[in-house]
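Record 1 of the preview.
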Amino acid sequence: MPRIAGVNIPDEKRIEVALTYVYGIGLSKSQEILKKAKINPDTRAGKISPEEVNSLRKLVETEYKVEGDLKRERMLNVKRLKDISCYRGSRHAKGLPVRGQQTKTNTRTVRGNVRRTTGSGRKPSAEKT
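->
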């Protein structure tokens, strides 16, 4: 099982898809990396040689920002927005949508799948008549 950027790459998948298990590498970036490393994208991850694994590891870790570095950069960007107390920063702090989406409906994933329903507003009487 090859290990690239601190992530175990699954053996049974094509190397093109297996590289996407690394945070910060999608399919298009994976294809670009394999083209630079001159590796066939159809080969299985378990079948590539140790030299090819080393070249991939070196290429990914030197030229691309992945995993911890990328997560740290994103976290610092959000922290900067909160510190300068701009609108986007306040939305991040409140856990609401940042980019102008409506909140009357939708945004359940951002708000934590909250399903609040209200009745007619009229409370039932305490005793039956």
